[in-house]
Amino acid sequence: MSVIREYEKRDLNALLSIWVAASEVAHPFLTREFLVQEKDNIPKLYLPNTQTWVAEEDERVVGFISLMGNEVGALFVHPDYHRKAIGGRLMDKARELRGELDVEVFAANPIGRAFYAKYGFEPVEEKIHEQTGFDLIRLRLS
Fold this sequence. Notes:
- By secondary structure, the protein is α+β, with helices and mostly antiparallel strands.
- The protein is 37% helix and 34% strand.
- Residues 2-142 form the N-acetyltransferase domain.
- GO terms for molecular function: acyltransferase activity, transferring groups other than amino-acyl groups.
């Protein structure tokens, strides 16, 4: 049975391993250095400044979503649990909490782009991600 609940400090290692596994699949174009730095930033910068929810399957954390106001700062599901509606349930929780949502996705991430399009997000802006030089697409769900 799957459960969506608020993140707790004890979830950190599971959350980081989900992020690493999902990033390898969705973001193979990012440098190892950038990913190492981002992994370090998750507990220090991102989690303290977001409201984060985790998805559990059989008492195992398998995905998470982090919100900064109406911005989806992160949505990651372990690749072993892709296509099981977990991302949709996490997004449903965000929608319930915030209503209108914005998210930025790398143009080179077809998995994320397809997910957000299927959920109903529409592009509102394109720009360059300063840290990596890759194209980002800002999407909105009204």
